[in-house]
């Protein structure tokens, strides 16, 4: 399912390539509202990832980084995680996907509350020329949906 803007449609008409549409789809982000603080949501996500048998590779506190240089930003944490059984076939089939894997979810404090944000696996597939029904992409889609839902509740 694509959301095509006029600019994208114009690019397709001018350049005659659906590659532009696939690239535009590569910018799709998923937003999941959370009932918790950024820290609690990140803690919940880490726990859900580990419970699922995946590995957390890093947790980055962007707000703490800002404070270290005397700059303030709202709470903002990035959790980087993955499962080599899912990511390796994607990188095997599209080596440049290593730019986007392991998976990343950022948890942000906004004026409307806390949200989790991630790039949809379908957009990762489109960006790297993989079919949306690639078995690992399908599994990543379900995993991200379940993990972020667990973190948010």
Secondary-structure map:
Blueprint: H1 6-15, H2 19-25, E1 29-34, H3 38-51, E2 55-61, H4 62-67, E3 76-82, H5 84-93, E4 103-110, E5 113-119, H6 121-127, H7 135-152
Helix pairs in contact: 1-2, 2-6, 3-7, 5-7, 6-7
Write up what this structure looks like.
The chain has 153 residues and is α+β, with helices and mostly antiparallel strands. Helix content is 47%, strand content 23%. The protein contains seven helices and five strands, in the order ααβαβαβαββαα. A five-stranded antiparallel sheet has the order 1-5-4-3-2. Helix 1 (6-15) runs antiparallel to helix 2, helix 2 (19-25) runs antiparallel to helix 6 (121-127) and helix 6 runs antiparallel to helix 7 (135-152). The two termini are 27 Å apart.
Key features?
5 strands, globular, 7 helices, 153 residues, single chain, alpha+beta
Average pLDDT confidence is: 86
Instruction: Tally the helices.
Output: 7
Shape: globular
N-to-C span: 27 Å
Order of helices and strands: HHEHEHEHEEHH
Structural class: alpha+beta
> Which strand order spans the largest sheet, edge to edge or round the barrel?
1-5-4-3-2
| CA-based gyration radius | 17 Å
Sheet having the most strands? 5 strands, antiparallel
Residue stretches low in confidence (pLDDT < 50, at least 5 long) are 1-26
Residue share in helix:
40-55%
| Structure summary, number of beta strands | 5
Estimate what percentage of residues fall within beta strands. Answer: 15-25%
Give a quick summary of the entry.
This protein has 153 residues and is of the alpha+beta class.
């Amino acid at each position: 399912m694509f959301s095509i803007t006029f600019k994208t449609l114009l690019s397709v008409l001018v350049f005659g390539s659906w590659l532009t549409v696939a690239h535009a789809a590569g910018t799709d982000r998923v937003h999941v509202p959370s009932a918790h603080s950024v820290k609690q949501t990140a803690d919940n996500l880490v726990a859900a990832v580990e419970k699922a048998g995946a590995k957390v590779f890093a947790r980055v506190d962007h707000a703490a980084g800002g404070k270290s240089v005397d700059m303030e930003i709202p709470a903002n944490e990035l959790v980087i995680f993955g499962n080599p059984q899912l990511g390796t076939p994607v990188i095997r089939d599209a080596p440049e996907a290593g730019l986007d894997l392991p998976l990343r979810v950022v948890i942000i404090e906004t004026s409307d509350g806390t949200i989790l944000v991630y790039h949809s696996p379908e957009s990762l597939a489109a960006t790297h020329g993989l079919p949306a029904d690639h078995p690992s992409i399908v599994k990543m889609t379900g995993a991200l949906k379940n993990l972020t839902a667990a973190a948010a509740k």
